[in-house]
């Protein structure tokens, strides 16, 4: 990948001298006669090339500014203390403070998903020493550009895009999901369903991989195990169909919204079924306000802390950086919604 753009590149693109570019970008044009057209050409070229001025140059005798970026691909930065991202953000703040780092929140140029994946907004993260990213999908072009320019970044969550070049701190959903199914099998369940969203994010695919691996190990019939559905499609009719098919246990994934697991639990209750007497239910990730539900808990706070440590390691590393990739274990939750088949 090409190096990060310099002022000389902007000068060539705008057809002006590098001195003119420096004056315009610094705002130091007092006493200098420059047309508005020239100024706008320079600014447009800088925007198109993704140029970001190096804040280190404005600091005294320092090669770093001790600022870490945080860029989330959610449409708005999460503020709900019970939300999925909140513990991650707490971990990020705690570890950044412990390491003497400031945090910079990047909000881009507007609202919504279009803003979140805008390559110009993502490139602006270069004003920090490095940046943490998290979201269910990777906008490959701007992330590839950052990596190619040597910019330190770390994703929160497993990423296999860009030929495995993205450093990340993720969760071992495969092993945790397999352990839940193994527990159900040990209790005597032979007919189960795994409910997941129709979205091929790595966290969803990893959960499915663990479920199927444990089912095959137990010699269960796997042809009908995986069911993809939206929360709106989960209701009492689906529960009744599964019951008619002899299903005694349902496992559901927990995403950042929590909507699918909430829909399943509501449908089970609406069908008048008791857990686990009538139907065992496990959630692959602890659902909001339901501590009694069996499954596992994602170590979200530790995700944030470890991601900060890895990012600082990337920033301070001497020599070529490696795409270090770390997996954390989930915490089993015994709960009370799993039991022997009724």
Fraction of residues in helix: 25-40%
Mean pLDDT: 87
What shape does the CA trace take? elongated
Number of domains: 3
CATH class of the largest domain: Alpha Beta
Query: Largest sheet at a glance?
Result: 6 strands, parallel
Q: Give me the CATH architecture of the largest domain, please.
A: 3-Layer(aba) Sandwich
Strand numbers in spatial order across the main sheet: 2-1-3-4-5-11
The strand count comes to: 12
| Poorly predicted runs | 56-62, 109-114
C-alpha end-to-end distance: 59 Å
- What name goes with the CATH superfamily of the largest domain? Response regulator
How are helices and strands ordered from N to C?
A: HHHEHEHHEHEHEHEHEHEHEEHEE
Q: State the CATH topology of the largest domain.
A: Rossmann fold
Q: So how many helices?
A: 13
Radius of gyration equals 25 Å
Find the structural class using helix and strand composition.
Answer: alpha/beta
Sheet-strand content, in percent, reads 15-25%
InterPro entries: HTH_LacI, LacI/GalR-like_sensor, Lambda_DNA-bd_dom_sf, Peripla_BP_I
GO molecular function, one term: DNA binding
Protein name: DNA-binding LacI/PurR family transcriptional regulator
Keywords: DNA-binding, Repressor, Transcription, Transcription regulation
Task: Give an account of the 3D structure.
The protein has 13 helices and 12 strands. With 342 residues, it is of the alpha/beta class. The chain has 3 domains: 7-51, 434 Repressor (Amino-terminal Domain) (Orthogonal Bundle), CATH 1.10.260; 62-171 and 301-331, Response regulator (Rossmann fold, 3-Layer(aba) Sandwich), CATH 3.40.50.2300; 173-298, Response regulator (Rossmann fold, 3-Layer(aba) Sandwich). Helix 8 links the parallel strand 4 and strand 5. It is elongated and about 85 Å long.
């Amino acid at each position: 990948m090409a190096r990060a753009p310099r002022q000389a590149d902007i000068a060539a693109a705008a057809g002006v001298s590098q001195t003119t570019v420096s004056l315009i970008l610094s705002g130091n044009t007092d006493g200098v006669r420059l047309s508005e057209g020239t100024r706008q050409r320079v600014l447009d070229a800088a925007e198109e090339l993704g140029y970001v001025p190096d804040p280190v140059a404005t600091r005294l005798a320092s090669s770093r500014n001790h600022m870490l970026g945080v860029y989330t691909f959610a449409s708005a930065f999460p503020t709900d203390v019970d939300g999925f991202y909140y513990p991650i953000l707490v971990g990020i703040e705690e570890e950044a403070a412990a390491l003497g780092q400031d945090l910079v929140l990047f909000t881009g140029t507007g609202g919504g998903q279009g803003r979140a994946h805008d390559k110009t907004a993502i490139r602006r993260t270069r004003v920090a020493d490095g940046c943490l990213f998290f979201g269910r999908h990777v906008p490959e072009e701007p992330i590839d550009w950052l990596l190619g320019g040597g910019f330190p970044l770390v994703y929160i969550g497993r990423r296999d895009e860009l030929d495995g070049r993205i450093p990340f701190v993720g969760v071992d959903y495969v092993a945790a999901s397999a352990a839940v199914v193994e527990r159900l099998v040990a209790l005597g369940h032979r007919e189960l369903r795994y409910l997941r969203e129709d979205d091929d994010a790595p966290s969803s695919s990893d959960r499915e991989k663990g479920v199927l691996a444990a089912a095959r190990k137990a010699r269960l019939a796997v042809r009908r195990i995986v069911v993809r559905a939206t929360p709106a499609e989960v209701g009492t009719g689906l529960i009744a169909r599964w019951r008619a098919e002899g299903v005694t246990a349902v496992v559901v994934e927990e995403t950042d919204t929590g909507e699918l697991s909430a829909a399943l639990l509501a449908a089970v209750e609406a069908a008048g079924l008791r857990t686990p007497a009538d139907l065992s239910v496990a959630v692959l990730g602890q659902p909001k306000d339901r501590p009694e539900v069996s499954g596992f808990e994602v170590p979200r706070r530790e995700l944030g802390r470890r991601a900060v440590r890895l990012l600082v390691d990337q920033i301070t590393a001497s020599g070529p950086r490696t795409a270090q990739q770390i997996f954390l274990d989930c915490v089993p939750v015994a709960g009370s919604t799993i039991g022997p088949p009724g």
